[in-house]
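SEQUENCE, STRUCTURE TOKENS:
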Amino acid sequence: MSGVYVHVPFCRRRCIYCDFYSVGERLAPWSDYVSALLGEARVRVPQMVVAPTTLYIGGGTPSLIPADEFARLSKGLSALTGEVGEFTIEVNPDDVTEDMARLWRGCGVNRLSMGVQSLDDGELRAICRRHDAAQARKAYEILRRHFGNISLDLMFGLPGQTVESFRRSVGGVVSMNPEHISAYSLMYEERTALTRMRDSGMIAEAAEEDSQTMFMELSEALSLAGYEQYEISNYSKPGYRSQHNSSYWRGEEYVGLGAAAHSYDGARLRKANHPDYKAYIDYWLAKKGECPAETETLSDDELREEMIMTRLRTREGLPLADFTARFGESATRRLLAAARPWLTARHLTLTPAHLTLTQTGIMISDEIILSLF
């Protein structure tokens, strides 16, 4: 499998926790940016070793793309990729209308990922989301009339969030019955407004014990509702795993289009477009200056560490035969020796085919994975 990712770096209002590259919607030169995306796509998609099987438009806020420009973008991309099995677009609840949902569906989108984050209005205001809980529910109702594959995002460890309020959000999302749920712990990234607020004492970071309780209750509630935890932060009904994101965790080829988008050739070469939408447009429309991107060739050690990190995040775990074939038997022996304490503590399980995190191991996955490097 392989995928194409498109980054749309424009937002109406920036969430205080976000460290992705984005700028204000008022700066968005939509026509030029879409033309630049298609210019890059015409060069890079035909160079892919494997024909794309997924297409993912993320951001930023892709649901802000005007209708005519979205139609032009999707038509141009589809002409290059051919029909893909999964075509996802990320949307914000307050951008969802009947007309836009109808447009997205007509353009070939067959999967929606909507950032709900919480169904508590106070928590949504605390992280500067544009929508409230009622808008999220209404948006879901609209999308459900047009799409049979919807993913909803939740966050835990938010300012002012309690275990009980998170439990209500989880229950509300489960009652909507989406095919997929992603749930992430709030992260205090460098250079974000959230981190500055914490450091100045304006807000307090959630207690680690509370965040762990939220995560455990989430996993239990979703399991009872018929969702499988196929990756640490991702849950799906049977048959509805995110194909696009799964290809990342398997280390497969993907091409990233747009300012700040990343690519990987599936072997050892990474490429990162510069986070500068103006330079991006200048290059791909008029070929002014040098291509605004950097490349990196991964070493064997970097590849080994990346394989441990990404595969252990998944339900299936690290495939030992693949690991040995790529890095040798001595690397596998070192890996299993490092894993022995975690196996004894029952934070990892070992079968002849896989090394896998247990449910308790997931809670301390970062510590475990680092120890295996």
